[in-house]
Each structure stands twice: as structure tokens, then as C-alpha cells.
Amino acid sequence: MQEVVGIPSSGGYSIPALLAGPAADANGTVIMAHGIFADKQENGRYAKQAEIHHALGRRTLRFDWQGHGDHPLPFSESSVAGNIDDLQTVMDYAGRTWDEDLFVVASSFGGAIFLMHQLLPQASHIRKALLLNPITDFTGTFFAPRTGELVEPFSAEKWRQVFAEGTTELVPGKTLSRRMAIELLTGAPHLGFARLQAPTMVIHGSSDASVSHTVTREHALGSDKVVFESIEGADHAFAAQWEEEASFSLIRHWFAN
Q1: Does the structure show a pLDDT above 90 at 162?
Q2: How many CB atoms lie within 10 A of CB 130?
């Protein structure tokens, strides 16, 4: 079963999502949140990963962040707070629609939004979570990064421009507002680790050029809810076949137990 759904939001728009997996008698729903500059397909990786969850008898619900994929809001109108609200909306929808266990998978920027969501006074109850190369430090990741795929979009010149002129184009079609720039310089996703309620696995490549493995590990190991797994030599998105296979093995074991 696969179906495109629109989830009504508090902002008056519909959050685009893809529902897949068992049509009936599922034993849980897995919400899958993608990274920045991607969409609900996470460059094809989420479709393959979803097969793991479907084999375990769970449906998957993949959705687009603001300014990404089919989301009606452009990137210029997106915000960290708005994305946190959208995540809460998707969780609420899943909870109302299916009275069963809820799981979350979040990659990179999606991991940051999930962690900041944990700071809400009534964050949705979930059974287990998985964070893939999560961004735990906005400033260290986005402010003049030295290596990786974020170097060009978040260059020193782009930061100068957004604060001087109010906007800057990070990549074609993605315009950063000064409002969101301020959120990226002042937000602290790592604080969410102290508020985790559910067992959470963090998988991070030791050779991640975009998001610091060392910083993530230091933050994650401060929580007794976290199981931290390094994939030695792996880069940010687990794009190489061996990286993907290594991550899928860990994912399969985590959600099967």
C-alpha cells in the first residue's frame, strides 16, 4: 500500500506526506524526517529503508519539511519553529489515526528538529527513535563550515548578505531569511538529548565531512537514553553502498528488538 496524504497543519496548509506499508493490522507507524536540501525520499534512501520497517509489520509516513519537496511553503518562509510545529502536527496525526506504537527516524537537519521538539512541554510519546548523522550544533555546522557539502551554501559571504540585506540564496530555489538565519545561530539542538523520553539510537559516520562526529558523540553520550553507533570511515549521507548496508544492518537490529 502506498498513498499520498495531506496532513492539515496549524498554519492552514497541508503537510505533504507519503504513507506506505501494511494496509491493515500494522504494529506501529514510523515517521521519517529528511535532511536539509532533500525531501521525503531522502535521495532514494528512505524508500529502501522503509522496506525494513514494512518487513517488521509497520507502516511508514514520510513527509516534507517547510521549503522542501512538495511542501506549500517556500524555503524563504520556513523557520525552525515552523518545522518543529509541523513535526508535532505529523505526530498528532499519526496518533489520532492509528492507536498504536509510534517510531521516529530523522536524518541530519531532521535530527536537529526532532531534538528541539523534545524541548516542548508535551512532546508526543514515541516508543523508539533513530537519528542518522544528526545536527546537534547549529553554529558549528552552518556558520562558515570548513568541509563538506554545506561549505558553499553557508559561506561567510552568504552570512554577511543575509544579515545585511535580509535574505540570501543558499542554493537555487532556496532563499534563507534573516529570521531563520537567527534561529540557526541561536538554536541549540543538543539540549534535546537531556529531555529524551524514548530509547534513541544515534548512528554517525566517523568521517562525516559536514556534521561533526565528535561533537554529536559528546552530546549524545550525555543521555542515558542514547545508544551511539559509529560507522568507521563513513561520510554524512551513507551514500556509498557499503555505508548504506552498514547503517541498514544497525537500523534493522534496532527496530526489531
Answers
A1: yes
A2: 26
